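Feature request, filed as a ticket because there's no other form

It would be nice if the structure record came with a short human-readable summary line next to the tokens. Right now we just get the raw output. Example of a typical job, pasted below so the devs can see what we mean:
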Amino acid sequence: RNPGEVVRTSLLRADEPAIALISNPADFPDPTCIGEVREPWVGLEVLCRKEDVGPVMQLVQDRRGMYQSLEYLDADLALLRFEVPLQGIILDFFDRLKSATAGYGSMSYEPIGYRAGDLVKLQILLLGEPAEALSTIVHKSEAHSVGAIICKKLKEVLPKAQYQIPIQAAVGAKVVARETLSAYRKDVTGYLYGGDVTRKRKLLEKQKKGKKRLKQMGKITLTQEAFLSVLKR
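Raw output as currently delivered:
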């Protein structure tokens, strides 16, 4: 579970409206049942050197943050205030802040309530099947970019099989990003000598059919590294 993905959804029901608190992306309702989605926001304060103000503002802007104020505490020290979705800072933000400020930046934040947002469930498909443990809730404008990052990272960390593994990111029925993990290939004709083309072709065709059967039965084992690659994007 991603601790930043706690959202409130207003559900459209025939009898009466209902509010659902969603902390697991797998429980995100069908979009046709949602009236409004609200996500938690925080007031964020960042203390940094004067020379790091620009990089800090860019970092927060990339997380959908809204600038509030800038105060210079002395000739070298600046205090920036923002309002930002909790999802934007809960995971790797502190590491990025340290990188942007050469280790000098520090931060604090406090809840300021829930705000409406155009949030969607980004689903990861492996071999065409949903991997619910890898689902995440993102802003609609970020679905393609986040999906592309997740697919690329999964391609790097998932073990190869004897068949190709399509890795897809989808919002509803729409695929927004895709990678393909290539199969590792065993040389089944290595022991043949000469020009026995027909025999080689038959062996390769048999291998191809065997891979197709394996793919139909295939299940992907998700490692801890795969989960972390989704969280730290």
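Something like this underneath would help us a lot:
The helical segments are 53-62, 93-100, 143-157, 197-217, 224-231.
The chain has five helices and eleven strands.
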